């Protein structure tokens, strides 16, 4: 929401007084944080220490896991903020930093999933033409740095602006729930900011990713290796689900809300806020992308599961043997 003064409209006040919505979002964030840190912690350990060689896909997955774990570390602060009734007590610098982490995770995840899709496209659809390119780790690392540079340059206003806002009617200080209209110098600057986020960082990568996975599935459609084809289809479906249900609602509602707020003084912020929390679900689904995208990751995870099953079976056998001996 944007505001030109300390007095807010009734819709904004009503949203900030909706304690039940804040509790619901907090419970959802707790669920996301637990799965995020568990799943991505295991994924990072496998990717860094148990997966070799470090192919382009693996490097992209490490980049994606880092962003997911950063989000998992930031969510507890959001949980506390919502449970305290949208009262921010950690100061403007911490507010800006955590907001940056929140949005950087979303857009770096989008760009990284696009990069993984392009890598699979090159490996399956164009293997001869791009074989040399795919083997150069430096290109992959440079690609990751370009992604971060693009995201951070786009989100630069969030780093340089005080995103806290004191609401005298409720005697609370919000964090990124009410934006000052002068955060950017003009309506044209706001339009450029929103256009870059929605179209450059979301819609374009979504189209590229969709093209890559459709091309991969078509290429494998006549392949005799049905297991490879099934994994490619499952990977494509997971990625499209993440884009469609985690990222698309948030980005489109951001655009709609901003246009309504800037030009018509109306708001759909409650829906946008809920979609923003739902976008964090992507960090829980990313390990499934690793499983279907990387043969090495899949093999190492299966090995761990098999070892656990074997050790459990051995324990049961020992217990049965001891029980039998004691009965004798």
From TrEMBL:
InterPro entries for this protein: GPCR_Rhodpsn, GPCR_Rhodpsn_7TM
Keyword annotations from UniProtKB, A to Z: Cell membrane, G-protein coupled receptor, Glycoprotein, Membrane, Receptor, Transducer, Transmembrane, Transmembrane helix
Main location: membrane
Subcellular localization(s) per the UniProt record: Cell membrane
PROSITE patterns, alphabetized: G_PROTEIN_RECEP_F1_1, G_PROTEIN_RECEP_F1_2
Family that this chain belongs to: Belongs to the G-protein coupled receptor 1 family.
The name this protein goes by in its record: P2Y receptor family member 8
Record organism: Amphilophus citrinellus
